[in-house]
Amino acid sequence: MRATARWAFADLRTHRGQALSIVLATAGITAALLLSAALLVYAANPWQRLFTTTQGAHVWLRTTAAADIGALRKLDGVSALSGPYRTEKVTLRHGADKAAADIRATGPTPPQIGRPRLAAGHWRVGPGEIVLEKSMATALWAQPGDTLSIGAGGAEQRVRVVGVAQTAETRYAPDSGPGISWASPSVVRSSAGASLPTGQTVGLRLSDPADTAFMVQRAVTAVGSDQVVSVATWQEARADAEGDNHLLGLLLLLFGVGALLAAAIAVTGGVSSRVLAYGRDISVLKAVGFTPGQIVQMFLIQHAALATAGVVLGAAATETLATRSPGQLSAAMTLWQGLPEHTWALPGTAVTTVLAIAAATVLAAWRAGRVPAIPAARIAAPGRRRMSGAARAVLRWRVPPALVLGCRGFLHRPWRSAAAVVRLALPLMMIAVALGAWATLDRIQHHPAQVGLAGQLTVRPSGLPDDQIRELLSRQPGIAAVEPGIELAALAPGQTETVTLRGLGTAARPYPFAVAEGRAPSGPAEAVAGQGLLDALHVTVGSWVRVTVGGTPHVLHIVGRSIEMEHGGRVLSTSYDTLRVQDASVRPSYYAPVLRPGARSDAVRQALTHASHGALEVRDSAAPAEQFTPMRGVIAGLVAVLALITLAELSTEIAAGIRNHAADFRAYRSIGLSPRQSVATMVTSIGILASAAAVTGAALGAWASRWLIDLQARHSGVGSGLAVPPSWAALTLLVGTCLAAAVAACVLPVRRAIQEQSMRALRTVQ
Amino acid sequence: MTQGDRTPDRESHVLRVEGLAKTYRADASEVAAVRGVDLNVRHGEFVALTGPSGAGKSTLLHLIGGLERPDRGRIWLDGRRVDGLSEARWAMIRRRSMGIVFQYFNLVSTLTVADNIELPGLLAGRAPREVRAAREELLAELRLEGKADNTPGDLSGGEQQRVALARALVNQPTLLLADEPTGSLDSKATREVMRLLTRCHRRGQTILLVTHDARVASSADRVISVFDGEIADDVTPDGSECGPSSAADIVRLRG
After folding, report:
1. Are A539 and A554 contained in the same domain?
2. What distance in Å separates the CA atoms of residue A420 and residue A489, rounded to the nearest whole number?
3. CA-based nearest residue in chain A for residue B123
4. pLDDT tens digits for B169-191?
5. Does the distance separating the beta carbons of A7 and B91 come in below 8 Å?
6. A286 touching B, CB under 8 A?
7. What's the CATH number where B213 sits?
8. Residue B232 structural domain
9. What are A383-433's pLDDT values in tens digits?
10. Which residue of B68, B123, B128 is in closest CB contact with A288?
11. CB-based contact A291 B88, cutoff 8 Å
12. pTM for the full predicted model
């Protein structure tokens, strides 16, 4: 054991760079895996906990007041009901902030099923008091003690906020459906306006959540489809709560696992190369009495120890630094650390990483154990292939011999060179995938129109007549055009989920939908749909669909698929005029001003608010890219880890090249090549290898990034067509950097090897 | 150990070899490197194996040291049959009972001179303090006192070979195998190494030396000529050839 330890420590001392690169790469991989786990847990867990603790309902039905809810109690598979609650659709106003809300009539104690969890204040709602759902309270900047006004059908009443509560239902967002609030029956009754339908809400807790889609159909049939206004399921609420964190977590997991694979291959290549490079030393160790088992054990323990050091470093850095980083990473890590799963997930990730690195070492270590004990037998047996006619011809044309010999050095063992190219191309491919993710984020953030977010602002009328709003908007110099829009919750065929029916733009001035497949709607009754809607309704481009909004049918011809960033892609978009033709009562619920180039959205927003004396509700359109901001930091970190793995792989190849060409250097000197030419020969070989790997990695990565992101987008409902490959400039920079790094990393060791060889030759004859 | 594993009537032999053969096969051609060699080496004997390049003398040494496996034949070390042992068993024999010196020194490049010498001692399970004392003694004897912390790359060829000799002797092996130990050295370093080997031999060390240099071979008690994988001649430096009876025990030409 002492002998083994002495050799292992001496080896580490001699190869500090290699050891450090293994430690750092493992640390980076561990950090990536832990962060991805934290984000995935962060994405899914809070909602799940809320749903469980509040005895959440799996399905929420919003029906007309006349609907017979009693039929739902008799349904097999419904274990309990929440409500029904008399519900009114109202507008809540707190200062300049307004939001649409469903206000539910509730008793003095919270219900058992779908029981809201109080975050602040109390539940006992008396006359003139209200409890707000947390996301609503946030949108209205309201807290217990504040006074709101409830507007419905022109009448207004003032209520005091007494509590803020959380519920495992879809959160409030300005562009989606109404938020949730609870008040005493008297407040709800007095909120009922003449022009708005009075309804009721009921929650269904199912005995088997997997049967949700089937149960929704049965429930809608039981109540009567004409009585159902909207349906919301627990899957929608969970997807809404997870938001893009889930996508973020999945992408990180992909990167983490990819980096682990790249590192494992790099470690295998690195250790194999060391076995070949130090085969003579291994032979000597065997000759002096090391058994094959001891040699295998030595390599395994050494690399497992390095991986363990890296894992400890990575885990410690993640656990301490991630909680101090800004944004979601910190929140995710703080939440994860408080969960019981964290206790086993941390050591689990650590052990998996160490085992992966150890497994990658096994093959190389086994090879080391098989090295024969005769040192002389390990002296390199270079290829015996003679120089090709082409190479000799090129040499005759006075092409620099270093270039010709360098090319030959790369090509004369094609299989070995190809394997080296593949090993080096893998981390470079992962870098190109990361660059593709970066480019896609750039597209969403800087070219929102390309992903269906042409309007940067959303203006909501609050009682102002259309012509007045249009006039206010047209007076703003920063606004180039105004698109009237409306979003309606519609029931789709099969009636399992509510979809969004959106009317945007006019026939004269069509909205620039981001069409990824088919064409944009141009004629009457034509529409485009998001991938989420196509999947939900099991239809394709070219199909006709019929959806109902409050009993009014809309029949539309899907002529294209649009990229849809909102509502999980379950959106059917047509022009506002088309909806008006099919239902004359439709009025714009918002306007999407298209800003002139150079106009700043916040300046326009302030100007509009000021011009309307606060009457217009002006908000920035949801900027999905902002949710991805932490991703940029993580991508940068991952690129650093992958660059480190690439460098480790490069140094392995350089060491192997020097070893394989040691005899050649002597030959070059004897035929009159200067040391500089000898160095140039080796630099050419490594340069060709790096270029081939970089070009292969960049090309595969550009393709893979598009494929992977589009695959993910298709599954999340956004639809393929979202991804953009990395720019040519980024790919060229990647290839150039790789080549430059290879040349820079090669020159010194080769020069040193040639010098050492000369010195050794001198010393041997002393 | 079974009766078949022991040769009780020949306990005085450190090494006994019978019918040893090794053939290399590559590219559909066969080269018989060693062809049925019989050889006995007594305790304290200094035997030189000589012959031209390619005669098979180094292969014979590697077979005796367990660095390669014979195709056929039997080997006894200190009366114990060893030719059928596993690679790991051979490694244990080498670390306890054998010292090997190679032409190209073959020191572990990442270890210091001190570590290179101490490694076999530690492998054999000796106490670190004892091994360090043995190393210091050997370095002093080989006039390498100041080189303990150098790496092999810092030393001249002659110095490296002396370190290799110290490494081979640190466990006071029963048998020292030396494969062309002076093959890469100049005349001065050659004389130095041979002086050291002779001194070891005088202390009772059994040595089996492979060399193609007649002057080096002349230092041995017994010179065995190998030609085409077979033993062609076996003489002592005074010119006396081993007698027929002893020749049957010591050297036999097969063919």
Report:
1. yes
2. 57
3. A3
4. 888 888 999 998 888 788 888 88
5. no
6. yes
7. 3.40.50.300
8. 3-252
9. 455 566 666 666 677 677 777 777 777 777 788 888 889 888 988 998 998
10. B123
11. yes
12. 0.64
